[in-house]
Amino acid sequence: MNHASDESLLDWFECIGAGDIVPAKKPAPDIYHYVMQQLNLNPEECIAFEDSENGIQASLDAGLATIISTNDYTRRHDFSGAALVLDQYGEADNPCQVIDGSALSNDYLTIDDVIAIHRQSTKQ
User: Parallel, antiparallel, or unpaired: how do β-strands 65-69 and 84-86 relate?
Assistant: First the structure.
């Protein structure tokens, strides 16, 4: 079974935002504004996960704390302003490396790390 085409997966999400439903694509923050409006959330209630310079520009312009996971195409991008930059999110048997930001509680990003990063970012 191809999970990417399993329509029941859509039930996992309250809102799915894609570039074709907003006037301007990243680096414009339109997609983040759209999703927050649909979910009735403010930026301080959210955290973004991005992997590119255009993505972080969009998330920061929307007022969101942002966690970055680089990839082969974006590892040299400017991620200034990110709360955390990792080479990957990691797994128990495949640790990630922190490129910029605070140390993690494990060798991989956990929900506890995300919560701590979000709390720290809203204190500023």
Answer: parallel
What SS3 state is found at 75? coil
CA distance 15 to 109: 24
Sequence-distant (≥ 6) Cβ neighbours of residue 112 within 8 angstroms: 105
Assign 3-state DSSP to the chain and report helix, strand, coil percentages, each to 5. 40, 15, 50
CB atoms within 10 A of CB 95: 13
Longest dimension (CA), the chain: 46
Provide the whole-model pTM: 0.89
Question: And the tokens for 49?
Answer: 């996960």
Q: Cis bond leading into 29, ω under 30°?
A: no
The residue type of 70 is T
Compute CA 53 distance to the chain's CA centroid, rounded to the nearest angstrom. Answer: 12
Summarize pLDDT for 41-81 with one digit per residue, the tens. Answer: 999 999 999 999 999 999 999 999 999 999 999 999 999 99
Which domains are delineated in the chain? 17-123 (3.40.50.1000)
